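Field log, afternoon session.

UNIT: design team B
ACTIVITY: writing a sequence onto a fixed backbone
BACKBONE:
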């Protein structure tokens, strides 16, 4: 009798456990975990560090510290978007490549007042960063830096071209940097190269727009990723910039397309150059890779070889100032697609929490770029974005930590 009761109790326990487990089941494959984790035996996603949520589709953002990032608004200088690079030679030195506006101009005058600068931090990758040097004068904008093992140098992708239309008072002026846009010089993607992160050579304009009626006549917002063998990244050699086996010159280039002069829809496409960063780049699709409106892509390949993007979303309640839906994630098993756009969970919003207990709800938050661990596991540690506060013409670059490892990297 006693044994029988125990059996019943055990059976009902198992039944309850089964129903509880199945009601919590959220995945049947790793795709259901946004490829940011694996679908476990119980049907629950086990997220990689830096990701959270049922589907591992939200960045695990921890409170940021003040001061951090690159914020020169106190002295009247605005910046927009930035990329962190660890110095391989000097311990505790980090570089930040950012767009910064001359003449004290605010975000509205990004063209033609933007130049690309290098800032430095000796207090960890989250900063705060101070100005070190100009990398490229006006008009140069939207820097995205990657180390290319095939070329054994850093490559800085950006938009712009030298222009003489800046005046002392902030004024928008029509100018062009190539086909696709005659209004503000945003169309056309160029590359600088450097062996030491300090001296940069102009390598050429590697992707041009055109003056047709195509959805992507205007090409901008470059996001490169060298496809050098993933075994390189697993050993850490990729991050350290050393040569390693598994050579390929292939370079991935994700970009935002827009109709001529960008009066309309902004969407995303992927291009590849098999022959090195110089191009020519072949688009993987003639159509955008997904229907949703987005700009500012950032692309990377994870430790399992899957591809990911962070995006500035232009959906309702997102986009330019309405918020909070500004950050989205997309993923694919191969860069050739199909790409899935994560429309269920926000990757990040306009709200930023600080460790002094304050929260800022920014007016605009765009241009996501990640800083990864250098152990070869490509763990996202820090997220940089451009932000514009409410009721301010100014803008700056913030850095927030991701997951436990990011909080640790951020320091005290
Ligand atoms: C950026 O600097 C401005 C001006 O000093 C300051 O008001 C603002 O709080 C700073 N932002 C952050 C996140 O600390
Ligand atoms: C600016 O540069 C253009 C093209 O080189 C030239 O035609 C024009 O005269 C220049 N304008 C000024 C004000 O220097
Ligand atoms: C990804 O696509 C490329 C181009 O079609 C192909 O060469 C490669 O083998 C694919 N990779 C995987 C892991 O399927
Ligand atoms: C997400 O997109 C899918 C496929 O287009 C659609 O079926 C679904 O309703 C969307 N979900 C949300 C929350 O918009």
């Amino acid at each position: 009798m006693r044994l029988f009761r125990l059996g019943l109790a055990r059976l009902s326990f198992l039944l309850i456990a089964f129903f509880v487990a199945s009601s919590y089941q959220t995945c049947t494959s790793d795709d259901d975990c946004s490829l940011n984790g694996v679908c476990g035996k119980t049907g629950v996603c086990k997220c990689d560090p830096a990701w959270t949520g049922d589907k591992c589709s939200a960045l695990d953002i921890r409170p940021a510290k003040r001061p951090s990032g690159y914020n020169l608004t106190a002295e009247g200088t605005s910046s927009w978007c930035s990329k962190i690079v660890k110095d391989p030679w000097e311990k505790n030195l980090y570089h930040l490549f950012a767009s910064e506006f001359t003449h004290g101009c605010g975000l509205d005058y990004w063209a033609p007042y933007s130049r690309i600068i290098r800032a430095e931090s000796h207090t960890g990758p989250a900063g705060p960063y101070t100005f070190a040097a100009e990398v490229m004068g006006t008009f140069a904008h939207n820097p995205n830096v990657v180390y290319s093992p095939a070329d054994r140098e850093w490559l800085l992708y950006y938009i712009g071209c030298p222009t003489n239309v800046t005046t002392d008072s902030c004024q928008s002026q029509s100018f062009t940097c190539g086909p696709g846009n005659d209004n503000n010089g945003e169309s056309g993607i160029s590359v600088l190269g450097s062996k030491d992160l300090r001296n940069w050579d102009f390598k050429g304009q590697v992707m041009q727009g055109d003056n047709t009626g195509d959805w992507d006549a205007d090409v901008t917002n470059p996001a490169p990723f060298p496809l050098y063998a993933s075994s390189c990244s697993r050993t850490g050699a990729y991050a350290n910039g050393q040569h390693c086996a598994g050579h390929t010159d292939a370079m991935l280039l994700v970009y935002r397309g827009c109709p001529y002069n960008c009066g309309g829809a902004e969407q995303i496409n992927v291009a590849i150059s098999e022959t090195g960063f110089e191009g020519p780049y072949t688009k993987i699709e003639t159509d955008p890779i997904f229907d949703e409106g987005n700009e500012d892509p950032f692309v990377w390949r994870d430790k399992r070889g899957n591809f990911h993007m962070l995006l500035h979303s232009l959906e309702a309640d997102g986009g330019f100032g309405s918020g909070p839906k500004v950050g989205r994630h997309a993923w694919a098993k191969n860069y050739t697609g199909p790409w899935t756009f994560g429309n269920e969970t926000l990757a990040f919003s306009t709200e930023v929490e600080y460790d002094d207990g304050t929260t800022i709800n920014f007016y605009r938050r765009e241009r996501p770029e990640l800083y990864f661990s250098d152990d070869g596991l490509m763990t996202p540690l820090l997220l940089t974005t451009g932000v514009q506060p409410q009721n301010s013409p100014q803008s700056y670059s913030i850095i927030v930590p991701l997951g436990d490892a990011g909080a640790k990297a951020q320091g005290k």
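LOG NOTE: Residues 334, 336 surround 2-acetamido-2-deoxy-beta-D-glucopyranose (ligand 3) (CB under 6 Å).
NEXT ACTIVITY: expression trials, pending approval
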